[in-house]
Amino acid sequence: MSYPESFIGPMREELTRLGVQELRTSGEVDAVVRQKSATVMVVVNSMCGCAAGKARPGVALALRHPVKPDVVATVFAGADIEATERVRSYCTGYPPSSPSIAILRDGQLLYMLERHQIENQTAETLAHVLTEAFDTLCAPTAQRAQAQSFVLGPWSEVARCLR
Predict the structure, then answer these.
(1) What's the pLDDT tens digit per position in 138-155?
(2) Which of 48, 91, 138, 161 is catalytic?
(3) Is 48 known to be catalytic?
C-alpha cells in the first residue's frame, strides 16, 4: 500500500516546483532514462527526515548551478512503487536506498549518492558534491573529455568522504 497523496503531495512539490519532472510509471522512467546522449539525474524522494532536511534542499541548491543535467526527474519511494523499482533497476550494484540520487546517461549509471551518504551531511555539502558531479558529468562533450581525469581526482575524494 502506498502513502496517501494528500500526505506526500507537499514533499513532491518541493522538487516539482523547481522544474523537476515527476515519473510515476516504469514506462515514464524508461522514456527519460534511455534518452540518447542526455544526462539524467533521478532523485528517489522519500518522506524521511534526511530527505526533508538534506536531500531535497541539497538538490534545490545544486540546481542553481550553471551546469546541470539535461533532465532532472524524481520518483517517490513508497508512492510511485513501480517507477521507483524501475529506477533502482538502473542502479545495479547498489541496494535500494531512499532518498538517493542517481546520474545516468544512455541508461547507464554514472554516479550514485545513497542514503548513508546523504543522512549525515548538510544540504550545502550535498549541493557541493552534486555540483562537482554536474561539472564532471554534465558539461558539454568537449568539456567532459577534459574533465575525465578529474573524476579520479578531487571529486572522487569528496565522494569518498560521504561513504
Answers:
(1) 987 545 444 443 443 344
(2) 48
(3) yes
